[in-house]
Amino acid sequence: MRIDKFLKVSRLIKRRTVANEITKSERILVNDKPVKPSYQLKLDDIITIEFGTKIIKVRVKSIIDSTKKADASEMFEFISEEKREL
User: Fold this and answer.
1) Do residues 36 and 23 touch, judged by C-beta distance below 8 A?
2) How far separated are the first and last CA of the chain, in Å rounded?
3) 45-58 tens-digit pLDDT
4) Rounded to the nearest 5°, which phi and psi values hold at 12?
């Protein structure tokens, strides 16, 4: 599954277009490398997301094409969340 779609389906980011733009601006890293929105995720990939002053790291647990809101959090597990100063 493409990373932009994964971010939307897992509800880490609300809209796929936003996920696409953030990925293009190199604020999404997979295994510590910047990727394009078309990057194909694999199980156990580690995604780093930079939201302004917050950095979140998650591990991909499952890849599901569509899911209910209650099941979305089962697609990933939080590794860390940190705040940084600008």
Assistant:
1) yes
2) 33
3) 999 999 889 999 99
4) -70, -35
